[in-house]
Fold these 4 entries.
Entry 1:
Amino acid sequence: MNTPAKRRTDPERAQSRRNQVLQAAAVCFARSGFHGASMSEISKQAGMSAGHIYNYFDSKDAIIMAFVDLQSEHVMTQLSELDSKDDPLQSMIDEAPRHIDESLDPHFFELPMEMCAEAARNPRIAEAMRAADVEAMARFRPIIKRERERRGLAADDALLDGRINTLVSLFHGLPVRALHVPGMHRDALVEGYRVALKALLLT
Amino acid sequence: MNTPAKRRTDPERAQSRRNQVLQAAAVCFARSGFHGASMSEISKQAGMSAGHIYNYFDSKDAIIMAFVDLQSEHVMTQLSELDSKDDPLQSMIDEAPRHIDESLDPHFFELPMEMCAEAARNPRIAEAMRAADVEAMARFRPIIKRERERRGLAADDALLDGRINTLVSLFHGLPVRALHVPGMHRDALVEGYRVALKALLLT
């Protein structure tokens, strides 16, 4: 039989408990905001005692940091997939519909929006988001550079910076746009995104 | 001498008091989040009694609604200016640096980010933001349509929808990008934005 001490050191069980807390926290943050949600609300939602939660996360900040890590893992996986394509630039344009659909899913964007609002006032969280971004750019930038050079397009550092930050802004802004215009014409949006992506990547 | 009753009905004084509350609320929302900031925190920041604040705003929702209205007035003014230009499409491209600088100013974006996070969970605020957007689009869209037709470019409804929503996403996303990359190379960003705007507006 598991003793409490053993439970805490079983990595698989600990991971599953951590995920249980994260899922509950996502629900509470969406409902009450990061500042409005208390550790006791999160523990009630997770069906765990507050004391038990503190075994995994010592604060709400630690919970939001875990979301930053999850988001970062998701981005790094997507970048590895991109790097393995025959033609990464063209595939970004071709796959615009998939990225658009993902960005338009409220379950996908509500939490990042809350995280950004919090990062704007919480330097520790902003710092974690920035570090994750530096890591992602260190993976993304060489792909764009290599592929532009392969096509004989300008690929100096300043140009790459500007094009990449514009391109990423485009996707960061889509959930905000969807919040303002819930019934967006999806195919028309795909056309617009392809026009912009093509200009940014292939000219 | 003003009596309290007279004070409440003096429109100029009422407006100045409303602004005092809004400025205090902006500080409190930035510091504590919309859910974390209480009416009593806002009244303390404004140097007014909580009871006095309720003369102007009957809830925090009413305060955030007033921010939606202010934002909307700002957008409508910008659209009138745009409409008065000789060449509105070219001027949007030329004026990218000004819009970028505005979007990169934390005082400009912290509150909208908080409003969006709140709108994602508060249907009344989402509804107000959507209504303001419908009004803005009713002003923006005919300008783009007229100018594209003048240049002999396609201007059917679906295309206009997609191009405009892509373009607006670009600017919605910039503050989020700036949060991730505080030291963005501004001139490189201007180049990227111009490339995207030119493709969206002039092709």
Note: Residues 38 and 60 of chain B are 8 Å apart (CA to CA).
Entry 2:
Amino acid sequence: MRMAELSQTTGIPVPTIKYYMREGLLAPGRPTGRNQADYGEEHVRRLRLVRALVEYGDLSIAVIRDLTARIDNPDLEEFDLLGAAQKTVTQRKEARPGPYKDEAEQRLYDLLSARGWRIRTGDPAYRTAVGVLATLDEVGRHDMLEALDAYADGAERIAEADVRLLGGDVSDRERAVEIVVIGTSVGDTLIACLRRLAQSTVAERIYARGPSAGEREPGLPGARRP
Amino acid sequence: MRMAELSQTTGIPVPTIKYYMREGLLAPGRPTGRNQADYGEEHVRRLRLVRALVEYGDLSIAVIRDLTARIDNPDLEEFDLLGAAQKTVTQRKEARPGPYKDEAEQRLYDLLSARGWRIRTGDPAYRTAVGVLATLDEVGRHDMLEALDAYADGAERIAEADVRLLGGDVSDRERAVEIVVIGTSVGDTLIACLRRLAQSTVAERIYARGPSAGEREPGLPGARRP
């Protein structure tokens, strides 16, 4: 297909497509004449992936270039490709050095060991988790530290769904990266929402009291577990 | 205690304390002379709460003023106070109108009904969840929609831990608001980290392959489930 059709199919403006090409995110088309080239389905897929990474991964062009280069590198194994994809959507926030941090390092290590989880202390998610635990300790929210194991339980259930969703076959590397990046970034928001929605239900069970009149939705029945 | 001691006890600079007082987040002290006042434990607690809300809730002064006013309003029931606290840490992102949104509304309603969760369609978490589901549909990630129930399972486990943590006794309203706001905002980050850490463990089980040499931590044994 021509550039105009590529733009129409993907809904991405021609100047943006050209920009992605200059930045190395998209391979050039097959030249068919002076100033003309032919594009195939692989260009459509790559463009959709790039847009998904820009929109949902909130990733910089440099990071996307690195990721697409990994997709195109046949020597890179799938597992490492997915690990790289996951790291791009993981914020890394280091704890301030000190006793709270040391304690938090030990606490997280013990938690993951007891659960048989893979331990890579340099992983951004691991570093950030240490920072969160140190913070909770510092502000005196020790009660939340006691809920850690239950949180890990919930997280493991969600992760199992994530991995099942990805499926055993990750030979379609473009799809796999898309699932990891969209699934992780958009999924975090979804999980945060579900957590809040579940909280009010669980809290209502405990406090055994209905919503106040102002909050009640007129058109919708308040569904309850029988 | 005097202002200087209040500042020392909380670690909050005097000008910041005075600012909070002018903004109505903190009650004035008991006057003990010209330009002097006496502060009590309730001032220490309130200051710690305000700092927690500023640092972890990322909340504006106006929102914090609203929250502290609710804490101080004895006519407001605990359940409503906690609902208000939770809303302040919930992002609201509305879906674009259209068929994806309509479909997403129905999907979320069905999911929550089937689970017996409380349904309040105007809740910010509900609105945002509709937006996320519409987005996933629009970008063609229908597979993630199928994982919804598993996500809700995980979220419910986490929410149960949240509510147990809060405890049945919420008569200490300051503590309850602090737990809800810190627990929700910091907790989201913690859960996102645990999800990623669990993902690599679960993925490793499936792909049945150890970490590559470059990722292995030298000093720490790779703990595995036996």
Note: Residues 3-75 of chain B form a domain with the Multidrug-efflux Transporter Regulator; Chain: A; Domain 2 fold (CATH 1.10.1660.10).
Entry 3:
Amino acid sequence: MSGSPPAASWLGIPAGSGFGLENLPYGVFSTGRDNRPRSGVAIGDQILDLTGVTGDPVHGTGSLNAFMAQGPRRWQTLRADLVTWLTDERHRRRVEPHLVPRGEARLHLPVEIADYVDFYSSRDHAENLGRILRPGGAPLTPNWLHMPLGYHGRAGTVVVSGTPVTRPRGQRRGPADDTPDFGPSQRLDIEAEIGFVVGSPSPAGRPVALPDLPRHVFGVCLLNDWSARDLQAWEYVPLGPFLGKSFLTSVSPWVVPLAALEAARIRPPRREVTPLPYLDDAAAEPWGLDIQLEVRLNGHLVSRPPFRLMYWTPAQQLAHLTVNGASLRTGDLFASGTVSGPARHQSGSFIELSWGGREPLELPDGSVRVFLQDGDHVTITAVAPGRHGETLSFGEVAGRVQPAAALTSQTASVPGPLGV
Amino acid sequence: MSGSPPAASWLGIPAGSGFGLENLPYGVFSTGRDNRPRSGVAIGDQILDLTGVTGDPVHGTGSLNAFMAQGPRRWQTLRADLVTWLTDERHRRRVEPHLVPRGEARLHLPVEIADYVDFYSSRDHAENLGRILRPGGAPLTPNWLHMPLGYHGRAGTVVVSGTPVTRPRGQRRGPADDTPDFGPSQRLDIEAEIGFVVGSPSPAGRPVALPDLPRHVFGVCLLNDWSARDLQAWEYVPLGPFLGKSFLTSVSPWVVPLAALEAARIRPPRREVTPLPYLDDAAAEPWGLDIQLEVRLNGHLVSRPPFRLMYWTPAQQLAHLTVNGASLRTGDLFASGTVSGPARHQSGSFIELSWGGREPLELPDGSVRVFLQDGDHVTITAVAPGRHGETLSFGEVAGRVQPAAALTSQTASVPGPLGV
């Protein structure tokens, strides 16, 4: 976490860019002149085209998966090479032609998602939801302090930032009703989260111990787990969240390498209950991360969720996920769960910001919100400390809410190939 | 469901084979002489090598996905061609060299699984579990009669029949304990299910209406959703099953085309509650299926679960899965949930067969079981009526329980590339 400051880049990166030499996040992009999706690295307000600068076809597959599958030694080598190429003036002539202005690029989903797991690791969030949804009961279920609770989400509906969020339809049951009705969700919400992308697989039957996180996790992104609270409330007992979540999950286009976050590593909060040995990180190198999120609704800052307060770390999440013998694949994505702090304005969801819809949130433009309205635009950003005082940006994950689609079944609109 | 009987095959298929001309299930196989995994069709005790007989590289990719993605017209055409080639003596000379004895083939996972969803659609099973796990309460949760409940499982741990089942470890908490301990599952169980494989994708925002099942579902397999009941019981509130299921899910190697099941289609049981319109199949063509399962433990028949009694049909499951706008991908797998009938010997899980472990099951060899022991071998088979009195076989999904693996972390056994 120290060492001499790196040489400056010949690129002339503006101070406070967030995309300096300490970051170098990976993404997949295309341009008007070349519409093939290919891997690149964000540097300042440019993207370095990795297919061009390396000549390696692994970067031309349209996702980061093939490169991620090469494993941590290869990730280290390329990262070191990138710093050399971007700081040593002798590489400038070779490298410069492969820079593309970020503003001209279209950003794609960076990873072909294998399995997507969503955890529930903020104690403040879990307690808030317990108090809102089960008033009078214990805020935490008995298992919460013993393991990072999680569930599998739908990998096929993970999309890149900017993809419109069509309001989902489904079954909803009001508190006074015996039976559900059907219609657009009236409690559409966000969940501001951090996602962890697995690069290097692990075989079945070989749990990933706490110190082994960096052998498997390639990098970190922002994630918005859009949630329909009314659908979720009606469906989730006993099998957990399903259609209330599976319509869309957005991720940021830039994956910050785990190696970029060395200076952000901190001790996680004190554990109230000593975890079982496979989760006990008291003697391990810490994997708390000092990432500060911000949530904006239609441009107004509404929340500043602190990732540093997360009770369970990504190392514990990965250890738990694999302790039963489950294998990991390149492209697996696991997310932290909603990041919330103890204060209302640190909440990573509107169900907390509006306390179950009972205390509307006032926006600076005079409007109020409980849950999301059609047309609303939500942006989640985050920063973390880099080395030498630099600040790392995670970019953003954003999306605009669109009205529920008209219910046209395929039968009505497409000629039937089977005549049924 | 009638029509003239088809011509016999020049192959001379034994009566009662289960793999006659009405079945023609697809799988992926390799042989000692040619170890490339490739697609084939089971016919009698042979496999017809589709790469050889068609010359089409779509069948040489190592999974059925590329062919399934071509859509229902293509599925129909090949199926019609196969019948012609196997019945018309004029094709014999060309086709016969591409037949491989089934006994000489190694069978692979037939489908690259995209998302895996597990439903919970047997009313008898849901009521049994409610009575066993929540005695005194209502056997069904209030939502059960209104929608096919489901959750996402781990796609990366879906394996082909025959893969050993290593007993998972995890957190378990006894009924008298305040805190959990850690160790091998002591309540390892099966769930006998039917799986449905999506061939043709559907776009986001376009729910698949009840009649559209055959546009999207390519075929049907057997599935064993191995379950660690002690891990599951401790973890599943409030996010649903996770590590109690994610260690392994086995599927049969043969995918029976949906088109083969025309004669097995029946009306599902009467619904106690009229479902919301998107799930109401009263006026639709029925998608109940008369599939009879059998479960064997170490060769002894222990259960005969009747799929015909399932409350929710695959058409309703698919309509529900997509009604919130979720897209489908080629390779998506959704399973019925445990198939159980009203009688004890129709139960698709040992937690039901032994009534929560309280009433041990006696086997003909004098041994007793509550849950699975190391070394136990479980086989699930199924048959369905074909046209013209033929019986279709689904083959089998089988697995043997192995002891929990020694807990060697990767750190202990592999040199660390990152030195952490």
Note: Chain B touches chain A through 83 residues (CB under 8 Å).
Entry 4:
Amino acid sequence: MNVKDISTHCTRTEFVGTTVLDTIGLVISGIDDTLLQKMNIGTKYHALGLFSSRTGAAGQLTAIDDAVKATNTEILSIELPRDTKGWGGHGNYIVLGGNDISDVRHAVQLALELTEKYAGELYISESGHLEFAYSASAGPALQKAFHAEPGEAFGFMAGSPAAIGLVMADTAMKASSVKITSYMTPDMGTAHSNEVILSLSGDASAVKEAVLNARQIGLELLIAMGSYPEIPGTPYL
Amino acid sequence: MNVKDISTHCTRTEFVGTTVLDTIGLVISGIDDTLLQKMNIGTKYHALGLFSSRTGAAGQLTAIDDAVKATNTEILSIELPRDTKGWGGHGNYIVLGGNDISDVRHAVQLALELTEKYAGELYISESGHLEFAYSASAGPALQKAFHAEPGEAFGFMAGSPAAIGLVMADTAMKASSVKITSYMTPDMGTAHSNEVILSLSGDASAVKEAVLNARQIGLELLIAMGSYPEIPGTPYL
Amino acid sequence: MNVKDISTHCTRTEFVGTTVLDTIGLVISGIDDTLLQKMNIGTKYHALGLFSSRTGAAGQLTAIDDAVKATNTEILSIELPRDTKGWGGHGNYIVLGGNDISDVRHAVQLALELTEKYAGELYISESGHLEFAYSASAGPALQKAFHAEPGEAFGFMAGSPAAIGLVMADTAMKASSVKITSYMTPDMGTAHSNEVILSLSGDASAVKEAVLNARQIGLELLIAMGSYPEIPGTPYL
């Protein structure tokens, strides 16, 4: 077998597409029954959508959230591995289900497209990274992953090294009146990542204000560590 | 102290050797009693063999498995740290015991040699990695690590980003009649690695068929992410 | 927003400074109450000091230990994320508290300065890393993190790949009469790092002898893996 004989243009029916941050979207039209029983996702759906990145979590989950709301699909599992290709954070691994494989494929396709937008708020320097996300109306993925209030605006911030994340969280809480939906640290809720993570629900303007204030101080502190971040996407906030 | 005064040719009695994937083999002829009690490996053996890599798990475990079967030694512990030098998977750390230090040294030496073969099925691209292993007859290491059926053929597959691993697992299950012995995901059984892992027991031809089908689709999907993998070893399947 | 508009010279009151190993020191003078309740550090202090690195644990904790002893501050939490920027070990994330923000700021400033010394015993090669630390008199940080005996000399060693760490631990125990205060492996007490870690309490000369013997064999084994380590700090033992 010579791997160079394999084309980068994949023709498998399972393949949907790829996007930034080493993200791949796949579908399985009729998952093997024995395997499904091991997966701990119930046995309701045999048409599965898979979404998986080496780097980033909240951006992709915000994309998935919109994709699930727009299609006849359901979130079955969300896992955040310790990854980021050597950096201090997470990747993601998400399984969707649907009765119709074309719905599932559409959801995965939509999530890939939206990831280009929602993963825009990622800042990676020589020393650490920051991640932000915002949704005007949280759906089932953000609820499952971060206990977001359904239908309310949702904000997310993660900072690494972890101390930067806590100052961002404190700044966000003082910036406006919002509700904490999840708080995570290396030993609390993360896969031992080097991050403090805060997510928020509330009114759109309050949540956005909190996230923007957190982003400003987070960037100032990260840059104080001696190098400017690369921005693999396009910031949207 | 000047580290450059230390030779790369190690003369310590503890040193056995090194091999691919930042693997080192060591022995301790009479482990300290107080330390042994902390190790949670029982107190039967004071002659210990140590085997440890930055990258890879199943290949080295298959090598250890053959080495233990060929010598008068026993597997005492298997741990899979979250490592792979910045990639999304595991390394390994294995402790063997024996009554005779020469048996233990022989086992470690054998495992180092066999790792060059069994760690051949590792594929690492810019985006992710795939690992495969196969043994015609599983022994105590593969049983302890992956619940392999002793004496039966054993197959292993891991894919990262994790979504690729699940499609490989589904493909393997549909390719032939085999039994799942372990199924792992970022939050289930791994050290939060960005992988889905499946291991199988069964007839030799069925297991090999399952692994080869998984390898083919795994490579197609990994390459679809945009770059060809490097192959640090020599594929043997 | 253009990140290049942000200066590397941070003027935020939260910023204290940075040092080697991607370490940042920060303070929060009046932590948000709602956030404080999520932090699991009690509610006694609203003036918090934060200390956080991508790489290293024991060196920074030894620095924090001295800083807390020298100031009117208290250790509130110590977390060791799985990090080291792609290598097999930990970073750190530490929260201090005090009644007076100037005490807390002084403690963080002191810890930053001492980290340059105490993080000197870090050796990072192409294959793995070693970390050592020594304190003549352990205080509350080393007690909280590694169960050090307060007031006694304290020694620490970590080796990666993990097998090297166990041989260092065995060598240390045979070198002198010391007491094990913590023993950690990938599955026992670490964030799934690829290390065996041992920490010791005892008489100053015995602890130092144990650590120096461990360092010698650790370096010989690491270098036997084929490359000389870089030493990001200045060794002090």
Note: Chain C has two domains: 3-120, 123-224.
